[in-house]
Amino acid sequence: MVLAKLYRDSVRQEGREEGREEAHRAWEAWNERREAAERDGRMFTEPPPSRNGTREENSD
């Protein structure tokens, strides 16, 4: 029982870390697009990853 709990906790922690990394990549990509638009004098209306409900799909 103890080993099963340790394994389950380990898997959960890995999942959390992967989720954080994915969110970080989504924010980095969004910010790069935002900065590029600002640099080019273009309007940037794409909502941030936390508001648009998607992640990697937005990296056009």
Global geometry: rod-shaped
The CA-CA distance between the termini, in Å, is 47 Å
Gyration radius from CA atoms, angstroms: 17 Å
What structural class do the secondary elements suggest?
A: mainly alpha
Approximate strand percentage: under 5%
Count of helices? Answer: 2
Largest sheet: none
Average pLDDT value? 87
Structure summary, number of beta strands: 0
Q: What is the helix fraction of residues, given as a range?
A: over 70%
Q: Could you list the spans in which at least 5 consecutive residues all have pLDDT below 50? A: none
- Order of SSEs: HH
Explained architecture:
- There is one protein chain.
- The protein has 60 residues and is mostly helical.
- The protein is built from 2 helices and no strands.
- The termini are far apart.
- The mean pLDDT is 87.
Compact summary:
The protein is an all-alpha fold and 60 residues long. It has two helices and no strands.
Fold topology:
Blueprint: H1 2-40, H2 49-52
List the main descriptive attributes of the protein structure presented here.
single chain, 60 residues, mainly alpha, 72% helix
